[in-house]
Design a protein that fits this description.
Blueprint (H helix, E strand, L loop, with lengths): L9 H15 L4 H17 L9 H13 L4 H20 L26 H8 L7 H16 L3 H5 L6 E2 L4 E5 L5 E5 L2 H18 L19 H12 L10 H14 L4 H8 L4 H4 L1 H17 L4
Helix pairs in contact: 1-2, 2-4, 3-4, 6-8, 6-10, 10-13
């Protein structure tokens, strides 16, 4: 029997699973929404009940998703969701066994990320700008993004007191509310000082609060604004790919490895939970090395 003697209400299942994802797993709102969409799709396949949810039903549901043309990355997420969901239901006593344990992991393809080369990064950060508050802010956030490789959400969440100017480090609250300390260099420090002294005070309002980076109305900057800043600056660099903030993160990681940093250090700087996530940057560096070899070596 797939479920214990007591029947479970579908709405209760979805509500409790969503609460578990938010409070215990501490997943992002976006991931929670995606997982709940997947669970509802699975329950639709099961006609709204858990009874009969076994490995055959899971594979049948996933096969239907594949036949509907879902991308491999989406199928990988749905598989991960199904495994999480059945494990949770088993722990709650709603399923007598956990069929997700028999479900193989669907691996999504991992395309190599586009990155700037070091010349392009230097050109982007050296682009001439005026000394107005917007230009000072934009230069400071660009310098900090490239210097630290922080995520755009982490950058937007920074407060003034998170920057330690004595040690040239910034305190970052990452995924899963894990705090890490990331160093930065003198160019970022100088840009931050110019913004905080000559730019930020001009945009401060009564309710501004401690946010490090502000919007023109005095509130904390949002991710969309940061993305527009990055796209606009890279558009000024000849030959540079059109990247967003995550592209600067990829570029920073790649340039660190090219400069001799070890993989563990880069993992810690980026706040990756698994070294497997960081290893993609070694592939980026190898591909760039191959390209340089093919272009330069007479016997390539």
């Amino acid at each position: 029997m797939g479920v214990d003697n007591v029947s479970v209400d579908r709405e209760e299942v979805v509500t409790e699973f969503g609460r578990y994802l938010r409070l215990e797993r501490d997943l992002s709102p976006h991931t929670v929404r995606a997982y709940l969409t997947d669970v509802n799709s699975l329950l639709d396949h099961m006609h709204g009940v858990l009874e009969g949810l076994d490995i055959g039903a899971l594979r049948e549901w996933l096969a239907g998703q594949h036949a509907a043309g879902k991308a491999r990355a989406t199928l990988a997420r749905k598989t991960a969701c199904a495994r999480t969901f059945t494990a949770y239901c088993h722990r709650r006593g709603w399923l007598s066994t956990d069929p997700g344990l028999l479900l193989g992991s669907a691996k999504a393809p991992r395309p190599l990320p586009a990155v700037l080369d070091q010349r392009q990064a230097e050109a982007a950060l050296d682009a001439a700008s005026s000394e107005g508050p917007k230009e000072l802010r934009d230069q400071a956030l660009l310098e900090l993004l490239y210097a630290t490789g922080v995520r755009v959400s982490e950058l937007c969440a920074l407060d003034v007191d998170d920057v330690d100017r004595e040690r040239n480090v910034v305190r970052v609250m990452g995924k899963g509310r894990k705090e890490r300390t990331v160093p930065f260099g003198l160019p970022a420090l100088r840009a931050l000082d110019r913004w905080c002294i000559h730019g930020r005070p001009l945009w401060m309002k009564a309710g501004t609060g401690p946010a490090l980076f502000l919007g023109v109305r005095g509130g904390r900057i949002d991710a969309g604004t940061v993305r527009r800043v990055v796209h606009a600056r890279l558009a000024q660099v000849e030959g540079a790919p059109d990247l967003g903030p995550h592209g600067l993160r990829h570029s920073a990681a790649t340039h660190l490895l090219e400069g001799g940093a070890d993989l563990r250090s880069v993992q810690e700087l980026l706040g990756h939970a698994s070294l497997n996530t960081t290893q993609i940057y070694t592939h980026v560096s190898i591909e760039r090395l191959r390209a340089a070899y093919r272009q330069a070596h007479p016997r390539a």
